[in-house]
């Protein structure tokens, strides 16, 4: 019986074969660059090569043993965490305001919050560089955090807005009538119910900052150079497989974050 | 608690739309007052002014002498129940009811006791540990009610709390609400567009239209002494027949009308309020006053009663009921002309404007 059409009009798996092939190609196209990097990182050679002719862990040792790489990694984490904190708080407040206020203003505000996603990154970077030159923020953690927060805000606003779309604002009114001040009503009633959206917004913010390289190329330097910036410089100057080792670690981190967020979402839905 | 509320000259406009137009209303201590009106009449806006979610353009609201408009919602000590319950889905039933007590710093043991008592009062004590999503609509509304009364608020505000329930449950909950109000005596302001619900529950009804209180009165005043055509139309199943002013009194299709207050024919164009349950088959004076010529268009046996559809002189059809064992008088045949009689005490004339 298997595989036989129930009616003459039903499309069989065979007739849909081209769709499966197409999907397989798309998935492969997405995954292969990641998969190529991983074996390259275990190369025993001095250069990036695929497939590697010999195997070793030397590039992981090179990465972990280098004070320069470690410092850059620390900078990246610090910037990403601060960006996550700032962008999540600001983005959540913005999304809340957009959801709560009626009229044209919220629509306009939403448009402005989306701008960093639409404007070419290179323009943001150049803009930041010239403004920071006057303010003395180039090469500082604060400057990086502010620039990355701007880039991360759209993701937080989108994520939290989608959470608020299905949230009943009357609950907050009830909480207020029951004796909660408005901020307290938000913290005890609204926030617990949109926390998954806020968390996924925070995750996006973290990744946006951690992966960012264009703006970092312009405004981060010296002891405050980010990991991505250093990787970029490394590829340009010497091209050794250390970059592949770091990339592999970053892929691992991303997969962990993604799986973690999915598990969280599952748990949230089961409740 | 039994608070006295004075609403004075409240106005609120949204751009060109006037939601509340100089509304003044006193609510007596312990009273169950219903704001009744069609959608967009301003009744919910007025409730939100009391709750503090809408700031009026002008006017004053005092509760037991304290000006309310300058207080934020959370300092007004009001219990509020919404149409969609607005229970907190991330808390258990008990936590929902305990929420206002936690905000007031009530110790854990007392909190649990009082939340339990409030839940018992609405017969939900046995479901205290359930999650909100496990409850039916009626159960949710009970929990919402328990949450609104558990902290002994100065006033209870309800915004169409029963309209999401089916008819049978709604009628059952109306009786429960009425009993609960009789027991607690909390001053209650209730918003609804359902006139029967308003008649069932209220001590007094404020009928609101176009941002104004059209008539304020007890249910029987509103029903039996409507101030104008709008009130008579909104309450009950009402038809209107045109009445002409005559030399010696109002005339209905040329026939004299005796009214309850003996009103002489007004010069204004007025309408006779015709409600099916007030029409009589027989009786009346020999002079032929207060009679309405009608035609039976359908006679249907429904077990407990006969349903007789009658066409009035203006072409409108109304349904009359007649008990099968009603003494005297035979049932009309289809198409037979009949003469209905309206007792003078039920003969009400209204004009378009009060």
Report the CATH topology name of the largest domain in chain B: Rossmann fold
CATH level-two architecture of the largest domain in chain B: 3-Layer(aba) Sandwich
CATH top level class name of chain A: Mainly Alpha
Report mean pLDDT of chain A, rounded to a whole number: 87
Termini Cα gap of chain B: 36 Å
Output the CATH homologous superfamily of the largest domain in chain B.
P-loop containing nucleotide triphosphate hydrolases
Query: What global shape of chain A is seen?
Result: globular
- The run of helices and strands of chain B is EEEHEEEHHHEHEHEEHHEEEEEEEEEE
| Broad structural category of chain A | mainly alpha
Q: Which pair of chains has the greatest number of interface residues, and how are they split between the two chains? A: A-B, 20 and 28 residues
Total number of helices of chain B: 8
Q: Quaternary status of these chains? A: heterodimer
How many separate domains of chain B? 2
Q: How many β strands of chain B by DSSP?
A: 20
Radius of gyration of chain A: 23 Å
Mean pLDDT across the residues of chain B is 87
The CATH architecture of chain A would be Orthogonal Bundle
Which spans of chain A of ≥5 residues are poorly predicted at pLDDT below 50? none
The CATH H-level homologous superfamily of chain A? MetI-like
Q: Helical proportion of chain A?
A: over 70%
CATH third-tier fold name of chain A: MetI-like fold
